[in-house]
Design goal:
CATH architecture of the largest domain: 2-Layer Sandwich
CATH superfamily of the largest domain: FAD/NAD-linked reductase, C-terminal dimerisation domain
Strand content: 25-35%
Strand order of the largest sheet: 1-2-5-4-3
Order of helices and strands: HEEHEHEE
Number of helices: 3
Number of strands: 5
CATH class of the largest domain: Alpha Beta
Shape: globular
Radius of gyration: 18 Å
Number of domains: 2
Length: about 120
């Protein structure tokens, strides 16, 4: 029996131990058991650190992008001018977006402050 004959869901996989990852893995397994061929894609698993202020990211960071051989385009912005930050009284924070310059594709995002985890 090869590894293609074994299915696992959740923390036992050792991949991104989050509830939303387990739900995704469940959908992948269900699709495969029903006859479709679906491979899991973990390139954009959102993650958050519940501190004050909150920190959240998805996809690559600058460090992981460079380790993957990509020199990303980086766009940074302060969130103090957004309506939500001001109405919720949390004007401190920032957002950083990373793009692959060769494909003009967003490859990562990181945010800190306010409700970044949302």
């Amino acid at each position: 029996m090869g590894t293609h004959d074994v299915w696992a869901i959740g923390d036992v996989t050792g991949i991104a131990p989050f509830t939303h990852t387990a739900h995704y893995q469940g959908r992948v397994v269900a699709a495969n058991l029903s006859g479709r061929t679906v491979d899991a894609d973990y390139r954009a698993v959102p993650r958050a650190v519940y501190i004050a202020p909150a920190l959240a990211s998805v996809g690559h960071t600058v460090v992981t992008a460079r380790a993957a051989g990509l020199e990303p385009l980086v766009a940074r912005a302060q969130v103090n001018q957004t309506v939500r930050a001001n109405t919720e009284g949390a004007p401190d924070g920032w957002l950083m977006l990373l793009a692959d310059p060769g494909t003009a594709t967003l490859v990562g995002a990181t945010a800190m402050g306010g409700a970044a985890e949302e």
